Amino acid sequence: MQNYLREFDKRFDSKEAMLSEKCHSPGYHTMIPDGVIVHSTRENLQYAICLLEAGGVKDFSRAEKVIRKILSLQDTDPFSKTYGIWSWYFEEPLDKMNPPDWNWADFLGARMAHIIRHYSGKLPADLVSQVRESLGHAGWCIFRRNVHLGYSNIAIMGGGVAAAAGEILDEPRLLDFGRERLRRVVELLSYNGTFSEYNSPTYTFVALEEAERILDLVEDRETRKHAEDIRHAGWKVISDHFHPATQQWGGAQSRAYSNFIGPHLSKYLSEQTNTGIKVHPSLAKASPRLPSFIPELPCPVEFRKRFTGLPSSPLEFKTRFIRRDENKISDANRKTRNAYGDRVGTTWMDDSASLGSINHEDTWTQRRFAFGHWKTESDPAVCLRVRFMHDGRDFCSGLVRNSQKGPRVLSAITMILNRGDFHPHFDHPKDDVFQAKDFRLRYELTGKGVEVEKIGRDRFVLSAGNCRAVIHAVPGKFGPNKIKWETGMEKGRAFVDAVCHHGKRKGFNFGTMGTVELVSGLELIGETQKPVEGKINIKRVKKDIYSAEWAGLKLVVPAAADNYPD
């Protein structure tokens, strides 16, 4: 505890009564550039909890100042659109954000509930009263927003905050709302088979942590049962997709912020499974995270063996992540040429490597739609990732279709209408035209000793250690452009690119630019194995639909831009 405090105390700004830090923008919500010194509302409320837990007189005094500062930054006007939430940073009021983040009612509300449950007897009465009021504002904001259940981590967190607020404030409507929200989350889990934010290292862990928080803060029996069901589901996701040889989380993943399991999650998994899970060397020097002070609960017994070995090698399984409800398909998608089925992931693993893919998904930066790792003598895990990029960064208006069997994946990219650039919802061009100097599909291998080479016409190899990823390319087209394949190396990364456009900046309207045919195959093989024989066979099925077949895999793909599947 004291080590944490000494580290964070160095950043305490006594003038603002808050910790300072450098801004690291994800590319949305905040307009503050990276590197600018800011004061985070969420981190500072967690810092206050850390001070309260330390328990010294000076710690309590500083915690009180920090809490009062955070309280002053909440929108408490019930007639305001942003009622009940906070901005990310002290320097950027809600009306300056693009857009404000309503999740801050959930994130900070959870911490307000924690403060009341654990420290209210040690804080001044007026401060406790203000914290209770703040929790009420957050709870009613969550109630009013009523986020859809598919937003798994926020649906769970908000349900817990509402239930805790209902008990703490003696407000039955909030308790009923929170309890019912969590019941419906569990119902959706049962319907789909897993979380809608499927196989996400970040948000499966958030679901686990929030389930543990609910069990710590809420006494209502039904609410606690729902939390335990969520906790069990979270551990099943992790154990199913954990690859013991690399100690990494296998694909496909709906939302990830890193290609490797981070330090905090590695420590948590290691302790709760009683195994020696180590953080990847590339993340070993990551900044420390403030403790949550949520009582951590052990991994259920039935899942623990999975963290030390595979039940068989090779192992292959499919997981239905999202069930398609034919009664809830939008009119736009009902009229399209392509029929989407359930969203299904395929995961393959052996004693050294893993490879996973999703049958259809967008190409947002948080997606890991075709994703793998393998172990080498010099690196505990190299990472293979497939991306679609616009001017050097991930582009979310691509739609990938994958078909996988074993360590082979056949992929096809088309474009999505009415979607954003870097974020699905926040930066869609008003005229539907994306200005670009560069569009490309990339197969990227990251790690020590990675290499790339061309091994023949339309074949490339990404290699490290005793494993090779062979990319089978196809001449294709991107509207009026012919697709060109090329290789490259950069800062510990080797890549094979399908260049769709490179050069002068020009506008691309996916609805009018013509057809896209971008197909490729991927296989993982050993150092002495030969790649699969035969080219990818592409046939026109109808005017705007083609099929692609390779190595026993098949895709049927619309060549024209399509709407995002419901």
**Biggest β-sheet strands, sense, barrel:** 9 strands, antiparallel
Low-confidence stretches at least 5 residues in length (pLDDT < 50)? 332-338
What level of helicity do the residues show? 25-40%
Count of structural domains: 2
Tell me about this structure:
The chain has 2 domains: 148-309, no CATH class; 315-558. It is 30% helix and 28% strand. The protein is built from 11 helices and 27 strands. A hairpin with a 2-residue loop joins strand 26 (545-550) and strand 27 (553-558). It is globular.
Topology of this protein?
Blueprint: H1 2-9, E1 12-13, E2 18-19, E3 21-22, E4 37-38, H2 41-54, H3 57-72, H4 103-119, H5 125-145, H6 152-168, H7 172-192, H8 201-217, H9 221-241, E5 242-243, E6 248-249, H10 263-273, E7 315-322, H11 331-334, E8 343-349, E9 353-358, E10 360-362, E11 370-374, E12 382-390, E13 393-394, E14 398-405, E15 408-415, E16 434-446, E17 451-456, E18 459-464, E19 467-473, E20 477-478, E21 481-482, E22 484-490, E23 493-508, E24 516-526, E25 537-542, E26 545-550, E27 553-558
Antiparallel strand pairs: 1-2, 3-4, 5-6, 7-8, 8-9, 9-11, 10-14, 11-12, 12-13, 12-16, 14-15, 15-24, 16-23, 17-18, 18-19, 19-24, 20-21, 20-24, 22-23, 25-26, 26-27
Short characterization:
The protein has 566 residues and is of the alpha+beta class. Helices cover 30% and strands 28% of the residues.
